[in-house]
Amino acid sequence: MNYDLIVIGSGPGGYVAAIRASQLGMKTAVVEKESLGGVCLNWGCIPTKALLKSAQVFRYASHAIDYGVKIEGAITPDFEGMIKRSRDVANSMSNGVQFLFKKNKIDFLKGTGKIKPGKKVVVTDESGKTTEYTANHIILATGTRSRELPNLKQDGKKIIGYRQAMNLPKQPKSMVVVGSGAIGSEFAYFYNSIGTEVTLIELLPNIVPLEDEEVSKQLERSFKKAGIKVMTDATVESVDVSGKGCKVIVKHGGMEAGKHGKGNEVIECEVVLSAVGVKSNIEGLGLEEVGIVVEKDKIKVDEYYRTNVEGYYAIGDIVPGQALAHVASHEGITCVEKIAGMDVEPVDYNNIPGCTYTSPEIASVGFTEKQAREAGYEIKTGKFPFTASGKASASGNKEGFIKVIFDAKYGEWLGAHFIGENVTELIAEVVVARKLETTGHEIIKSIHPHPTMSEAVMEAVAAAYGEVIHI
Question: Which member of 63, 441, 448, 450 is catalytic?
Answer without folding.
Answer: 450
